[in-house]
Amino acid sequence: xxxxxxxxxxxxxxxxxxxxxxxxxxxxxxxxxxxxxxxxxxxxxxxxxxxxxxxxxxxxxxxxxxxxxxxxxxxxxxxxxxxxxxxxxxxxxxxxxxxxxxxxxxxxxxxxxxxxxxxxxxxxxxxxxxxxxxxxxxxxxxxxxxxxxxxxxxxxxxxxxxxxxxxxxxxxxxxxxxxxxxxxxxxxxxxxxxxxxxxxxxxxxxxxxxxxxxxxxxxxxxxxxxxxxxxxxxxxxxxxxxxxxxxxxxxxxxxxxxxxxxxxxxxxxxxxxxxxxxxxxxxxxxxxxxxxxxxxxxxxxxxxxxxxxxxxxxxxxxxxxxxxxx
Length: 326
Fold this sequence. Notes:
Blueprint: E1 15-16, E2 21-25, E3 34-39, H1 47-55, H2 59-76, H3 113-149, H4 151-165, H5 169-177, H6 186-212, H7 216-223, H8 228-239, H9 241-264, H10 276-283, H11 292-319, H12 321-325
Antiparallel strand pairs: 1-2, 2-3
Helix pairs in contact: 1-11, 2-3, 2-11, 3-4, 3-6, 3-9, 3-11, 4-6, 5-6, 6-9, 7-8, 9-10, 9-11, 10-11
């Protein structure tokens, strides 16, 4: 019976080797084949490398970066934008219009609105960044332990998380801050917001860790002798970080709003602190006569929060494999 021709017996057939653009020619007499062309493909990018490729093509990412960088520069280097002391107030300038050295005019106390808007970024952004760091550290630790070890660890930590989830975030922060009328500071605000803000990160981390811990590379790490804590720190958390980063980016803007809300109510940062929330609270009294007093600090607050929300959306889309396929 004649043999059925195969791909290996066809002299014109080129067989690609897996993982490389190599073609084997079967035209030699021995039949063993010879490599007549080699063109190695570059190694596949990591998840973060692929995400960066997606991010740099998104106008949303660059617009958010511009807003965030502007807010950070205002917070770190306010002297680059104004040389006016934000606490220097002259009643003779009360509700004054814009002037060459004072582009935003003056508030009811005669303070330069532009200087206060610039320096107000320091307190507001500091509260947002520090609270986010605290929330991510606490929430990630609790969620990672609960999701990875399971058992009674998971049951206990999940019930504690549920208890904090049942407490209204802003209401609890307002009640606790009202108890520290004489001891309020940026650190106090950060701690209060952090105490009631970590459950969201904990729940997201728990779900991400439970999904990653069943992957083959985790099993291989344990089989090679790595301890459970080392595997959690070196392999599981880095691969579960994507949803944590997205949530933290969006939450940062929420914490800035929370600080502004408490300062607006007079229970946030201590009196005399230059912040957007405090200036918005002061501006409400003269809004009808001079609405510009409210627009500038409120606009700076809105643009900063918008920047972090847009960044969170852009990062989420870049790290979502389904979004990349679409």
